[in-house]
Amino acid sequence: MTVKTLSARKNGTARAGAEAGTEPIPLRYGDDPYVWACWLYYEDHMTQGDIAEIMGISRATVNSYLADARARGIVNISLEPSRLSSLSIAQELKRHFGLHDCLVVPSDDNTRPLIDRLGGAAAQALAKLLKSGDTLAVAWGRTVLAIAEQASVPGLQDVTVVQATGGTAANFAYTPELCASVMAGAVNARLVNITAPAVVSTAEIRDMLLREPLIESQFDALGKANKALFGISSLRPNSTIHTSGFFESVSLQQYLARNAVGVVAGRFIDGQGKPVAGPLDDRIIGISLDMLKAINLRIAVAGGFDKVPAILAALRGGYVNVLITDAATGRGILNADGVTELDQKLSQRPKIDHRAALPSNFRTHIKKFLNDPNDVVEEMLDGVVKAHAGYIRPIKGSHRALVARTGPRPGKVGLVIGGGTGHEPCFLGYVGKGLADAVAVGNIFSSPPPGTIFQCANAASGGQGVLFVYGNYAGDVMNFDMAAEMAAEHNIEVRTVVTTDDIASSPIEDKEGRRGVAGNFFMFKTAGAACDRGLSLDACEAATRKANARTFTMGVALEPCSMPQTRRQNFEIGPDDIEIGMGIHGERGVIRDKMMSADEIADRVMDRIFSEMKAAPGDRVAVLVNSFGATPLMELYILFRRVEQRLSAKDIKIEANWVGHYCTSLDMVGASISVLHLDNELTELLHHPCDTAVLRIG
Amino acid sequence: MSDNAARRLSRMFYRISIAIEAGKDHLSDLDGAIGDADHGITMSLGFMAVNAELAKLNLDNTLPSEVFAVAASAFLDAVGASTGPLYASAFRRAAQALKKDECLSPADQAAIVEAMTTGIKERGKGQRGDKTMLDAWVPATEAAVNARARAAGGPEMWNSILEAAEAGANSTRSMVAARGRAARLGERSLGHMDPGAASAVIILRAMKDTFDEGEREKSGPR
C-alpha cells in the first residue's frame, strides 16, 4: 500500500513537471487522492483514463485507488435490499431443490401485474438459455403467452418450437397453438403444431389419432425436445385450469378428490409430485410426464401465493430444473418445505470484502472451454456419446454407464473398466470389440458409484462371468467391491484385477499398495483380448494379473493441472521444480527435483524401471509414452527417442509402441513412461485385433 | 409438536450442506496439499444431492430412519469416490440404529454418531491413527458414549463430541497417512490436516447446532 502511494506520488510529480497544466488536489478533497479518485469515478462518472489524466497518475494507479477505497470502506457498494433478497431466495431454491438454475423477480415492484413481470424475466432468461439447434417444447397458459409476447431472441439458427399439447377450440386467448406460434416467431424458429385436440372423447379416438402419420411425426418432433417451457397451474377455483374450460369440470372434481394439487403441461400431480390417475388420462393428447422428465432443461415459470403447493409438488416430482418465480412465492415455497434459515440470513448485514486488490494482469483463473462448470462431465459425455456412437451406447439412457455396440456376447467373459473423468481418453476410449465391454464413468477424479458399475456388469455379462479391471485407489476399490456384491446377488460372478503399475507410488515391498496409472492401457488390452478369445474367467484373470505384474510406469509432472470447477491449479510447483512420481490425479509426486533436460528425466524414469524389470538381452517390450494432457507430441517423441536408446543399448526389442494422449490428468504438463515386459502369451494378446475409439489393432 | 423428528434431521442435512458449501474451497485446498483437491467439491455435491432427495419426501409421515436411508442412497449415487461409500455406509448404519427408537433423544443422537462411525470403519477397514476422517469420528464417538454413560444432557454431550472431534482432526497434522491416496506420499503428508477429518468436524458441528437448537426450543421461555 505504502509503496503504491509513494510511486503514485512520484508519478504525479514526474508528470506534473512534464505537463505544467496538471492540477494539485482540489481543496475540498483534503489531501486524500482516494476520495478525489472516487468522486471523479462514482459522482462525476468519468472513465479511469480521464481520471488518470486529471490526477496526473497512471491508469493502473487509478484502478488500484478505486479498489483500495472499497477495501478501506471509503466507498460502500450496496445492493438495493429487495434485489439482494431475491438473489438470496433464488440461491436457496437452487440449493434446496438441486436446481440447475433459478431466477427470482423482486417483489416490491408492484407497478405491473405479476404475470407480465414473470413473463419479462422469463423472456430475458430464455435469451440466455436458448441456443442454436435447440428444440423447445412450449406448453400453454397465461404465463407462457406473456413470455412469448415479450421474448425476442435474435440470431439463433435451426431452432424448432414444438407445441407440447394438442390444441383446443376453447374460447380463451392463450391457446396452445397461439403460445407456440408466438414463441416460434419471437425466437425465429420452425414451428411444429400438434394438429389434434388436446382432449378427445374416448381413448380409442386418441389411439387412432396418434397412429396418424402426420400426428406421429409431430410427436417425433416433440420427442426430440431438449428444452421445455411451461407454467404450473394450481387447482384453486379461480385457476386457469378451471376458468379456461380446457378440462371438463366433472373430471376436474375427480382429480381433486384424488388429492391432485396442480397441473404441469396438462397433467395432474399430487403434493409429492406423483401423477394422479383420473378419467382424462387416456383421452389427453400431449406430452406425458415421463417425456417431460426426460427433457434436459425444464423451465417452469410460475408465481402467486395460491400456486405455492402446486410449484412445490412440481419441484418434488423433479419436473422442473429451472424455476422462474417471484420473491414472495419463492420464500413461500421454501417455508412450506420447512426452510426457515433464510429469514435469519436475510436479516444479516452483508459482509465487507477486505481482500486487497490484485494487479490487473495477475491471473487467478485458468482459461477453459466451459459452459456451466458444474455440467462439465455431463456435457463431455454428451459429446462422447455422439462422437463415438459407432462404438458405444448408453445403458438405460445413462451416459455414466456405456456399453460397447459390438462387445458383450453369450459365452464370453465380460470386461468392465471404469474410473473418474479427467483422464480422457481413459477409460471410455477403450470400449469396443476386442477390448472392454462396458465402462462406468465417475465425476472428475472420482470413482463411479456402485449402481453405475453394476449396470455395466449386467450389460457386459454373457453368462461366463465378468472381469473388473481398474486402478488401485481406495474409492474405486470400495465402489467396485460394492458393485461386485450387487452382481453376486444377481448371480453374475465377478473377478477383479486392481492395477498397480506406478512403481513410484510405493516401495517394492508394498507392490499391492501401488496405484494404477497409464499402464492400465496394457492391462485393458490384455484383458480385452483374453475375453475376446473366449478364454475362461480364470484364464482372463490370470493373463491380466500377469500383464499387471510385468507393467512398470513412472510419471513426471512439470506443471499442475486445474480443476474445471475452480479453474485453479490444484497444487503449487516452483518455477524451476518438477515432480517425479506423479500420479494421474494431480496428487503430488513422491520426490520434488529441479528442472532437468528431457534425457535426464527419461533416464531417471528408465533407471527406476530397469531396477524392477528383470529383462534379459533379446527380451521384448511394449512401450507407452503418455502425455498428462498439456505436453505436446513434440516433447513426447523426444522422450521416446531416449527410451528407445536406453532399451536398445540393453538389446531389448520394442515389439510395439504408442506415443500420445492415452491417460491424461486434465491439463497437467507432464508425461509418463510405461513399459510392458512381454512373453509369448502377452505378445499374442497384444496383437489380438481390437476396434475402439482410440485404439485399433488389426 | 410442529417440529417432528424427520424435519429436524432434514434440517440437519440442510445445515451440513450449507456448512460444507461454505468450507468447500478450504477443504479442497487441504486436499490439494495431500490428495487430488476435490474433497470439498465431492462433499458439497453429495450433500446437495441429499437435500434435493429429502425435498421430495413428505416429512410429516417419514421416520427419521427413513431420512437417513434416503440420504445414504442419494449421497452414494451422486458422488461415488471414496467418500460416497464411506458416508453412505455411515448413514445406512444410522438408519438401522434409529429403527430401534425413532424419537431422537440425546441417547439416540449418541447412537447416530456411534453408528455412523461404525459404518465408516467397516467400509474403509480403517482405524484411528491412519490420518483419515476416522481420527475425528472415533474420538467423537468415545465422547458420545461417555456422555451417554453419565447421562449427560444434549448440549453437554454435543460440546464434548465437538471438542473431541476437533482435537482429533488437529492431531492428524502430525500423522503420516496410512490409507487413501495420501498414503503414497509417505512423510510428505506430515504437517497437513486430513481433509476428511476436517469435513467430519464441519458435519459434527452442524449436527450439534441442529440438536442444540431443538434443546433451546424445548427449554426456552414460552
TrEMBL record, chain A:
It comes from the Bacteria. Keywords: Kinase, Transferase. InterPro entries: DhaK_dom, Dihydroxyacetone_Kinase, NagB/RpiA_transferase-like, RNA_pol_sigma70_r4_t2, RNA_pol_sigma_r3/r4-like, Sugar-bd_dom_put, WH-like_DNA-bd_sf. GO terms for molecular function: carbohydrate binding; DNA binding; glycerone kinase activity; sigma factor activity. Pfam families: Dak1, Sigma70_r4_2, Sugar-bind. Residues 372-697 form the DhaK domain. One of its GO terms (biological process) is glycerol catabolic process. GO terms for cellular component: cytosol. This is Dihydroxyacetone kinase. It comes from Mesorhizobium metallidurans STM 2683.
Automatic annotation (TrEMBL), chain B:
One of its GO terms (molecular function) is glycerone kinase activity. GO terms for biological process: glycerol catabolic process. SMART domains: Dak2. Keywords: Kinase, Transferase. Residues 7-209 form the DhaL domain. Signal peptide: none annotated. GO terms for cellular component: cytosol. Coiled coil: none annotated. It holds the Pfam family Dak2. It comes from the Bacteria. InterPro entries: DhaK_L_YcgS (IPR012737), DhaL_dom (IPR004007), DhaL_dom_sf (IPR036117), Dihydroxyacetone_Kinase (IPR050861). NCBIfam families: dha_L_ycgS. This is Dihydroxyacetone kinase, C-terminal domain. It comes from Mesorhizobium metallidurans STM 2683.
